[in-house]
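Lab notebook, bench 4. The sequencing result for the construct came back, and we need a structural model before the next group meeting so we can plan mutations. Quick request posted to the team channel:

Model the 3D structure of this chain.
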Amino acid sequence: MSYYPNANPQSMSNMQFTPKDPSYVQYNQQPAPAPVMYGPRLLHIYINGLTHRKMTIFDNDKQTALYTIKQNQGMSLFSEKPHMKIFRGLDTNVPYVGSASFHGFSQSVDLGFHGRMEYLHADSLFKRTHSFNSSVGRLSWKGDGIMSNNLKLVDQQDNLYARFDNAAFSMSKEGKLEIYAPNAQGMLLDEIVTSGLAMIQCERRRRNNNSGSIAASSS
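Done. Here's the predicted structure in token form:
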């Protein structure tokens, strides 16, 4: 099924993606429009280095940088907050459009969207579900499969907004963020990306805590 019903299938075979310099993206401008395609819009999350302190999110063409992510080292209870900052494009000398701060003894996360504060709330200690208030209503990130690290974002009617496909065996790529919401531009896209990155970090912390518990019990 096409999420862009007005697209011309014939034009897709001749489509060429041209590399762009995304430095023109300013704080008060909208991100580059999504290229016409069938299926979800794919965003590729790449890690710069081995520490996850900086990441870049590229559009479907893997050349247009949509977001840059900067993270404080360790992101511990005593690290400077916000622990994670999300910038549009490659310029990190402008105001960030999203932020996330984590807590040492809580699974919930403080989110910021253009200065508006929200909470990515852990719905249960035993479920991989975190919810927050977005510009279009209440959305929830959930585990997508019992044995996988994949995630999905749905609304209260279980309509799919996005899915994160974890690149489990890659040292340079965090994974793919599949955007299914056809109106995911501007603020909503910032909210999906910011909350998704925060949820990915929550999942990483959960796995590390589980590994530590297993190691402690076996010693």
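The chain has two helices and twelve strands.
Will bring this to the meeting.
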